[in-house]
Design goal:
Blueprint: H1 4-19, H2 23-43, H3 48-67, H4 71-87, H5 92-108, H6 112-124, H7 139-156, H8 159-175, H9 182-202, H10 206-219, H11 238-247, H12 254-260, H13 281-296, H14 301-320, H15 324-328, H16 330-342, H17 345-348, H18 352-371, H19 377-390
Helix pairs in contact: 1-2, 1-3, 2-3, 3-4, 4-5, 5-6, 5-7, 6-7, 6-14, 7-8, 7-9, 8-9, 9-10, 11-12, 11-14, 13-14, 13-16, 16-18, 16-19, 18-19
Length: 394
Amino acid sequence: MPNKRHARKTHRDAARLASAGNHQTALTGYHRAAAEYRDHLRTRSDDESARTELAELLAQVAASENALKQPGRAAVALTERLRHLRELDRPRTELAEVELDLAEAHLRAGHLLTAATAADSAVRSYDRRDAVDPSGPTFWALAAALARNARILHHAADPDLAVGAADQAARMILAIPGQGDEAARRDYLRDVLGLAVELHAAAGRDAYARSAARLLAEHFPGADPAAPHRSAAPPLTLRAALVAAGRLGVFADANLIDRLCPDPVAHDAPPAISARCDPGLAPVALHAVGGAVEALRVSHPALAWRMATEIHYLLAAADREGERNLRLNFRDHGPVWLAMLLALTDAVRRQRDLAADLAGVLADLVERLRSRHAAEGALVASAAKFIELHHPGR
């Protein structure tokens, strides 16, 4: 019989080991306690105290896994933690913070696709009202979320989205009255200003880079305010990828570019994937871009990767929001989505972590195809082969 009291004792003992730096042994205790909590919840699913204790334990598991440089295992623990917190109906700001923890764990594990979508889900839980009043209860939480999102986007998505998130986070943090966690605000501000300098300079927006550098020097006198030298090859944006695809003759909808790629330095520049455009545009973009991805997968893999991943992120956001066209016509859109992602498989075969991440994304999409009766035999068979090779646990 599961014993909640014994689980608590095992949990406490493991926490003491972790606090002493003995994370490997602590994890053994954590997992024993977690198993007892889960067994208890199978028969007492309404026991909120046990579910709360298990959620806290899973946060400690993730911390120990991170200490042992096992971010993939940390992500597994945080995924379960998030599920329990949702069951407990915790406040959306708390859920968003945990989802960003999860996104950062995926990023450290090299799971770029999952990191970007998890971060966007977290940021999407806020709305425009949260950004209105600097003294409001959620203003700081949103500013911190955007700062974290900027770092994730910088590694996993369009640089124009990353700089939009960094600029907005900086503006919000600078507007916050001097109260609360000053150290955290300074850390986030230093990060986003440094990122803004880097990305604006790399894109040739020298005036914006200098402005960010001045703010960095003003608030952090010890930091080097000088903008870095412009790179000969600036980071590849979705706009640049689509323009290049047009020049190569494989993308013809020039009007779509402005709709998908707002000005990254406008005051209302999108700071997140789901803010890029109306979700109804996602399936339109899929059919406009899918063929270009296939055409460029071998000759221009970087262009194919940027276009496919950004459209995938948009589709994931639209699907999460229940976009009507995508849901009702999934038999038309789903197979094209799957084919677009399969065009990326060659590019990741030698990158174990990223290949495993893509395999997980493909597995989730195949499940959606099957549940919505939209499975295509040859496509699903190709996806299943890749999943089995790179993510056999799925």
